[in-house]
Amino acid sequence: MTALYTEHHDVLLSFVRRYVRSPEQAEDVVQETLLRAWRRIDKLEPRHATVRSYLFTIARNVLTDGWRAEQRRPEPLYDNEALAAVPSADDVESALEGHLVTAALERLSSEHRDVIQALYFEGLTVAESASRLTIPEGTVKSRAYYAVRNLRAAFEEMGVLR
Question: Are 12 and 26 in contact (CB under 8 A)?
Fold first, then answer.
């Protein structure tokens, strides 16, 4: 096998380089060619011309197999605009969560929805929410408590929580 490699490697490599893009790919094809020849070394005849033509035939078959494998794979998409337009899993998940939250909020009374909006979505304190909604702070707290309970019940009805 060492003699086969030493004698035919360079010739095979120059033959294969005409058909592949990179030197690394050419080396891979030559290695695969020599590996296939080694598996069938008992079939090789020692005449120089026969061995070289046999190796060229194997190399051509390896190249054909590689080309066919490439044809089966889909072509990679390099259009950055198209890739940016495809929603990611996070975008889809956040849109779904937003839809569920909106649907659950619609099930609340307007007073409870206003308190939830002020406290949780706008980040206001109880005192700020009470001032904006012109209700006592205790009322903001109790409405927030019952609004959260009603939201939990709405999510359970929608199948989101158990």
Answer: no
Per residue of the chain (162 residues), what is the pLDDT tens digit? 787 788 888 989 999 999 988 899 999 999 998 888 888 877 777 665 678 888 888 999 999 988 888 888 776 667 777 767 776 666 667 777 888 888 888 988 999 999 999 998 899 999 999 999 999 999 999 999 999 999 898 888 888 765
Alpha helices in 18-122 (DSSP H): 23-39, 48-72, 80-85, 89-106, 110-116
**Residue 136 in contact with residue 130, Cβ under 8 Å?**
yes
Sequence-distant (≥ 6) Cβ neighbours of residue 108 within 8 angstroms: 116, 147, 150, 151, 154
Q: Which two tokens stand for residue 105?
A: 């909020």
pTM for the structure as a whole: 0.45
CB-CB contact of 151 with 108 (8 Å): yes
